[in-house]
Amino acid sequence: MKVLVTRPEPACSELITAITTKGGEAFASPLIRIGPGAELNTLIPQLDSLTANDLVFLLSKNAVEYANLTLEQMGRSWSDKLSYYGIGRSTGQYFQQVTGKDIRWAEQGETSEILLTHPELQFLEGKNALLLRGNGGRELLASTLRARGAQVSYCECYTRYPVDYDKALFNQQWFQTGITDVVITSGQMLALLEELITEEYQTWWFSRRLLVVSERIADQARRGGWQKVCVANSADNNALLEALISIDMGC
């Protein structure tokens, strides 16, 4: 097993260490890097505008990290009066770890679709919802919350920056390395990878085993031509490692 890990640091290096500990080979090629978001200066005013039992959604561990750092730098803490929701177990547990606050998430997976099945998110008339997220991203969560009666606002807590690679060298390097598996943890990263693939190497890439973190990304990959697409139980590194070493990944 020779795994190409494309997720940003530090999760990329952490997964590589875990894979090598299990006897596999793994290589880093992050497709995006993460930096502070453009709207962090609005975070505290937006949080202060919320009232008791309003909703705050943490859409990734990166959102938790940058939002929490901003509050710490200003000598502030997370309010006890708000209801917090995370996209998936890894984000929820990370929020609990760094804040000590309660947070709800859906155990079945790490997507907006699954979180929106939560019983407490079905009727939201009169509620305000603040989404802490990265730049861009999907609108499904916001549009559904609005349809259920909530007033929705955003705070861009982190920014995703594509990493530039020379296409020819990128394809040659990983072909010569003999990559067998590729880890992709977002639709954006899949699109960036496909932009890097040259026609000469397309058949080879699309015959690699592709590990993704949701059925939505799996469908995107299959439509793009990937032949062996597997779905991990979540986006955290433990779940990715478990999927990689499993003899039955559902490919």
From TrEMBL:
List the CDD domains hit by this protein, alphabetically: HemD
Q: Transmembrane segments in this chain: where?
A: none
One Pfam family name is HEM4
Signal peptide start-end: none
Q: Which UniProt keywords apply?
A: Lyase, Porphyrin biosynthesis
Task: Please state every residue range assigned to the domain named Tetrapyrrole biosynthesis uroporphyrinogen III synthase.
Answer: 14-242
Per the UniProt entry, the Enzyme Commission number(s) are: 4.2.1.75
The lineage's top-level taxon is Bacteria
Pathway it works in? Porphyrin-containing compound metabolism; protoporphyrin-IX biosynthesis; coproporphyrinogen-III from 5-aminolevulinate: step 3/4
Catalytic reaction(s) noted? hydroxymethylbilane = uroporphyrinogen III + H2O
Q: Which GO terms describe its biological process?
A: protoporphyrinogen IX biosynthetic process; uroporphyrinogen III biosynthetic process
A Gene Ontology molecular-function term?
A: uroporphyrinogen-III synthase activity
Q: Which InterPro entries would you find in this protein's record?
A: 4pyrrol_syn_uPrphyn_synt_sf (IPR036108), 4pyrrol_synth_uPrphyn_synth (IPR003754), UROS/Hem4 (IPR039793)
EC class name: lyase
Q: Which family does it belong to?
A: Belongs to the uroporphyrinogen-III synthase family.
Function, as annotated, reads: Catalyzes cyclization of the linear tetrapyrrole, hydroxymethylbilane, to the macrocyclic uroporphyrinogen III.
Record PANTHER family: UROPORPHYRINOGEN-III SYNTHASE, CHLOROPLASTIC
Protein known as: Uroporphyrinogen-III synthase
Source organism lineage? Bacteria, Pseudomonadati, Pseudomonadota, Gammaproteobacteria, Enterobacterales
